Amino acid sequence: RTGVIIRELEKEVAIQNSPEYRNNLADLLAIEDLIRQCQYYSSVEKEKVLKKLKAKRFAVRQNLKHDFNTNFGSVFRTHTNATLFAHGLQQYADLYTSKIENFLVCPLDATLYPERNYLPHEFKLN
Protein backbone atom coordinates (compact mmCIF):
# COMPACT_ATOMS: atom_id res chain seq x y z
CA ARG A 1 0.00 0.00 0.00
CA THR A 2 1.13 3.54 -0.79
CA GLY A 3 0.52 6.76 1.12
CA VAL A 4 1.58 10.21 -0.01
CA ILE A 5 2.16 13.42 1.94
CA ILE A 6 1.34 16.50 -0.16
CA ARG A 7 2.01 19.76 1.65
CA GLU A 8 0.17 21.81 -1.01
CA LEU A 9 -3.07 19.95 -0.26
CA GLU A 10 -3.99 22.10 2.76
CA LYS A 11 -3.73 25.29 0.72
CA GLU A 12 -5.74 23.82 -2.15
CA VAL A 13 -8.51 22.64 0.18
CA ALA A 14 -8.61 26.03 1.93
CA ILE A 15 -8.95 27.79 -1.44
CA GLN A 16 -11.67 25.40 -2.61
CA ASN A 17 -13.61 25.95 0.61
CA SER A 18 -13.42 29.76 0.40
CA PRO A 19 -16.66 31.60 -0.42
CA GLU A 20 -14.96 33.47 -3.28
CA TYR A 21 -13.81 30.25 -4.98
CA ARG A 22 -17.19 28.57 -4.51
CA ASN A 23 -19.00 31.60 -5.95
CA ASN A 24 -16.64 31.69 -8.94
CA LEU A 25 -17.11 27.96 -9.50
CA ALA A 26 -20.90 28.30 -9.28
CA ASP A 27 -20.72 31.15 -11.81
CA LEU A 28 -18.55 29.05 -14.14
CA LEU A 29 -20.91 26.08 -14.00
CA ALA A 30 -23.92 28.32 -14.67
CA ILE A 31 -22.16 30.00 -17.62
CA GLU A 32 -21.16 26.64 -19.09
CA ASP A 33 -24.74 25.42 -18.74
CA LEU A 34 -25.98 28.53 -20.55
CA ILE A 35 -23.44 27.98 -23.34
CA ARG A 36 -24.63 24.39 -23.77
CA GLN A 37 -28.30 25.47 -23.85
CA CYS A 38 -27.68 28.43 -26.16
CA GLN A 39 -26.23 26.20 -28.87
CA TYR A 40 -29.66 24.64 -29.51
CA TYR A 41 -31.31 27.94 -30.41
CA SER A 42 -31.18 29.75 -33.69
CA SER A 43 -31.44 33.51 -33.72
CA VAL A 44 -29.64 36.58 -34.94
CA GLU A 45 -28.40 37.31 -31.43
CA LYS A 46 -27.12 33.80 -30.75
CA GLU A 47 -23.54 34.41 -31.86
CA LYS A 48 -23.28 37.66 -29.90
CA VAL A 49 -24.65 35.99 -26.78
CA LEU A 50 -22.30 33.01 -27.18
CA LYS A 51 -19.33 35.31 -27.67
CA LYS A 52 -20.15 37.23 -24.47
CA LEU A 53 -20.72 34.02 -22.51
CA LYS A 54 -17.42 32.54 -23.72
CA ALA A 55 -15.56 35.73 -22.79
CA LYS A 56 -17.14 35.65 -19.32
CA ARG A 57 -16.27 31.94 -19.02
CA PHE A 58 -12.64 32.66 -19.89
CA ALA A 59 -12.45 35.42 -17.25
CA VAL A 60 -13.99 33.24 -14.54
CA ARG A 61 -11.69 30.32 -15.43
CA GLN A 62 -8.69 32.65 -15.12
CA ASN A 63 -9.93 33.81 -11.70
CA LEU A 64 -10.27 30.21 -10.54
CA LYS A 65 -6.77 29.40 -11.78
CA HIS A 66 -5.28 32.57 -10.28
CA ASP A 67 -6.56 31.65 -6.82
CA PHE A 68 -4.13 28.72 -6.75
CA ASN A 69 -1.02 29.83 -8.62
CA THR A 70 -0.76 32.67 -11.13
CA ASN A 71 1.52 30.64 -13.42
CA PHE A 72 -0.10 27.22 -13.61
CA GLY A 73 -3.17 27.02 -11.35
CA SER A 74 -4.04 24.05 -9.20
CA VAL A 75 -1.65 21.16 -8.68
CA PHE A 76 -4.62 18.77 -9.00
CA ARG A 77 -6.91 20.21 -11.67
CA THR A 78 -6.67 21.92 -15.01
CA HIS A 79 -10.12 23.31 -15.78
CA THR A 80 -12.34 20.22 -16.19
CA ASN A 81 -9.65 17.54 -16.00
CA ALA A 82 -7.26 16.18 -13.42
CA THR A 83 -3.62 17.17 -13.92
CA LEU A 84 -1.04 14.54 -14.77
CA PHE A 85 0.09 14.73 -11.14
CA ALA A 86 -3.45 14.08 -9.87
CA HIS A 87 -3.91 11.25 -12.36
CA GLY A 88 -0.69 9.60 -11.16
CA LEU A 89 -1.77 10.11 -7.57
CA GLN A 90 -5.11 8.41 -8.22
CA GLN A 91 -3.41 5.57 -10.03
CA TYR A 92 -0.60 4.79 -7.59
CA ALA A 93 -1.49 6.16 -4.14
CA ASP A 94 -3.91 4.36 -1.87
CA LEU A 95 -4.29 7.47 0.27
CA TYR A 96 -2.89 10.95 0.56
CA THR A 97 -2.92 13.74 3.09
CA SER A 98 -1.24 17.07 3.75
CA LYS A 99 0.62 15.94 6.86
CA ILE A 100 1.25 12.72 8.75
CA GLU A 101 -0.26 14.20 11.92
CA ASN A 102 -3.72 13.83 10.33
CA PHE A 103 -3.50 10.11 11.16
CA LEU A 104 -3.17 10.74 14.91
CA VAL A 105 -6.97 10.49 15.22
CA CYS A 106 -6.93 6.95 13.76
CA PRO A 107 -6.48 3.91 15.99
CA LEU A 108 -3.19 2.10 15.39
CA ASP A 109 -5.03 -1.01 14.23
CA ALA A 110 -7.41 0.84 11.87
CA THR A 111 -7.84 -0.42 8.33
CA LEU A 112 -8.59 2.30 5.79
CA TYR A 113 -10.97 1.29 3.02
CA PRO A 114 -11.24 3.27 -0.21
CA GLU A 115 -14.55 4.63 -1.46
CA ARG A 116 -15.89 3.28 -4.72
CA ASN A 117 -14.92 5.28 -7.80
CA TYR A 118 -17.94 5.48 -10.06
CA LEU A 119 -17.63 5.57 -13.82
CA PRO A 120 -19.62 8.29 -15.61
CA HIS A 121 -22.31 5.83 -16.76
CA GLU A 122 -22.78 4.13 -13.36
CA PHE A 123 -25.60 4.84 -10.93
CA LYS A 124 -24.43 6.39 -7.65
CA LEU A 125 -26.13 5.08 -4.52
CA ASN A 126 -24.65 7.65 -2.12
List the helices and strands and how they pair.
Blueprint lengths: L2 E3 L2 H10 L1 H20 L7 H23 L8 E2 L2 E2 L1 H9 L2 E3 L29
Parallel strand pairs: 1-4
Antiparallel strand pairs: 2-3
Q: What is the N-to-C succession of helices and strands?
A: EHHHEEHE
Structural class: mainly alpha
Task: Report the sheet-strand fraction.
Answer: 5-15%
For this structure, the quaternary state is single chain
Low-confidence stretches: none
Mean pLDDT: 89
Rounded to an integer in angstroms, the radius of gyration calculated over CA atoms is 19 Å
Amino-to-carboxy terminus distance: 26 Å
Kindly state the number of beta strands: 4
Count of separate DSSP helical elements:
4
- Shape from CA axes? elongated
Sheet having the most strands = 2 strands, parallel
Which strand order does the major sheet show? 1-4
Question: Could you walk me through the main structural features you see in this protein, from its secondary elements to its overall organization?
Answer:
The protein has 126 residues and is mainly alpha-helical. 49% of the residues lie in helices and 8% in strands. The protein has 4 helices and 4 strands, in the order E-H-H-H-E-E-H-E. The protein has helices at 8-17, 19-38, 46-68, 84-92, and strands at residues 3-5, 77-78, 81-82, 95-97. The strands form 2 sheets. A two-stranded parallel ribbon has the order 1-4. Strands 2-3 form a two-stranded antiparallel ribbon. Helix 2 packs antiparallel against helix 3 (46-68). The longest helix is centred in the middle third of the chain and has 23 residues, at 46-68. The two termini are 26 Å apart.
